[in-house]
Amino acid sequence: MTDKWVVGKDPGQIDSRGADTYEATAWGRRYVARDGSTRDLWLLSFGATKEDRPKAEKAAAAFVAARGMPAKGGWKARHTPVPAGSLHPGRTSAPERVRVIEFGCGVGTSATLLDWDRATAHQRFASDAWPALIRAIDDTRALPGSSCVDCKALSGCGALARSPGLLQITPTGPKRARRSVSVTDLRSYRDCPAKYHATRQLKLRSAQPESSEIRRGRAVDSWLNERHGTHPHDGCRDLPGPADPSSWNVGGLHLVGKEAEDGAAMLEQHAYVCPLNGLGPGELVRVQHQVACFDPELDLVLIATPDLLYTRSGSWVWWEMKTANSRLYEGEPLMARYPQLAMGVLMLAAGVLGGNIARSRVELELLHCDDLTLEELDPSRPRVVSEAREVIAALARPWAEDQLYPATPGRSCRSCEARNWCRSGRDHLAAATEES
Ligand SMILES: [Zn+2]
C-alpha cells in the first residue's frame, strides 16, 4: 500500500513543548487482508533479519498497525488522511489481528516478531512503548555524537567539545562536507578503503558467519556491559558467571562448547579485577557512552565509544576491554596495536570529558582464557600524547585525503564483510584458491 498508517489527533493548542500535533507512524511495507481483519507490517533490515528489536519498538509498530489510518504527506507537515470513501473498505476498518514481520533484505529471510489481537496491541503499547515515547518527547538534552554531522545548530552548540588541531592534519584539496570518523572507521579503512566505503559509509554488510574469536569477544563484551550498567554500580567480583559455562546466552548470542567455556573463563578473570569493584557510591559510571569532539578546521566530528567510563575521585578513567588469544609481546607499542587507546588519550588530554587530566587514565584490560594483562596510559604525559597523536594521524591522514576509496585486495579479503559487493576482492580470493 502506498498510503502510510498514521495515528494522530486533530491539532490542539500549542502545548508546553511548543507542539500542536503528535503523530505516530511506522516505516515498512504494509499489507491488509481484503476483509480488513488482519494487517501485516513488514520491517525491512539491510542485512540479516533483526530479531532483537527492543520491546518498545515492537509495541509501537504493532500499535500503528492496529490503529493507524491511511494518510499521505507528512514531510515537514501534518499527514493528510485519505478520504475513507476513496479506498476499499477493508483498508480503513480496524483490524482484529496485527502481525509485525521482520525481513532481512540481504539474506532474504523473515521472522514473525509478534502476532497480536487488537487488545494486546493496545495493552503492549501502553506498557512497553508509551514510557519510551514520553522519554523521547520530553528529553531535550544535547547528546553529542554521530548525529552532529548533519546538525544545522552545530555552530552555536556548546555541548560538543571543540578540539582544534587534535589530529594535526592540514586540510588539503577541495572543501568537503562535514564528516565523522571513529577508530573503527579508520581501522576498516586501513584494511581496505573499499571495505570502509561499503561497510562504514554505505552500511552494507553481509551476514556471513563471524569467526569464533569475534563471537566470543562480542559475547564477553555484552555480558560485561549488562553487568556494568546495573544500578547501583557494583563490581563483578561477587556476581556469578554463566550458570552453565559450556552453554550460555547474552545479547542474542548463544555460545556452546569450547567457545562458551573460554568466554566464561575470561569473565572469571575479569571478576577479580573489575574496575567497579569497591568504587565509591558517588562516582559516575557510563557504559558504552559515545564521546565526541569537533575539529572545526577539518570540519570533522571525532567519535569514540569506550567500553566503560568511570570517575575515580572525580577524574575520568577511560576503560577498554579486549579478548585475545595472543598476548602482547615485550615492548610492543600498545597504542599502535589498539588505536582506541590512542583516541582515548587524545580526547582525555584535550579535556573533552573535563575533570582533572593529571589524574585521568586510559586503562586496557586484555583478557585471555587463563590469564589477563592490565595496562595504563597517562594522558597528562606529553610523550604519551605525542605517541597517541602519531598513531591516530598515521591512520587518519590517508583517510582524510581519499576521494575514491579503491579496493586493495589482500589478506583481509577472506574475512571481509563487503566481499559480496567487491569484484576485486572475489577475484583475489578465487586466484588465491587456485594457487593453493
Ligand atoms: Zn566488571
Characterization of the model:
The protein has 436 residues and is an alpha+beta fold. The chain has 2 domains: 4-138, no CATH class; 182-401, Lambda Exonuclease, Chain A, CATH 3.90.320.10. Helices cover 31% and strands 23% of the residues. It has helices at 55-67, 118-138, 183-191, 193-201, 212-228, 257-273, 334-337, 339-349, 382-401, 423-435; strands at 4-8, 23-25, 29-32, 38-45, 69-73, 79-81, 97-104, 109-117, 161-162, 179-182, 247-250, 253-256, 285-287, 291-295, 300-304, 308-312, 315-323, 361-367, 372-377. The strands form 5 sheets. Strands 13-16-17-18-19 form a 5-stranded mixed β-sheet, sandwiched between helices. Helix 1 (55-67) packs across helix 2. The longest helix is centred in the N-terminal third of the chain and has 21 residues, at 118-138. The radius of gyration is 25 Å and the shape is globular. The protein starts with a strand and ends with a helix. The model has no long low-confidence stretch (mean pLDDT 91). Bound molecules: zinc ion (ZN). Zinc ion is lined by residues 224, 227-228, 235-236, 270, 274, 276. Zinc ion binds next to helix 5.
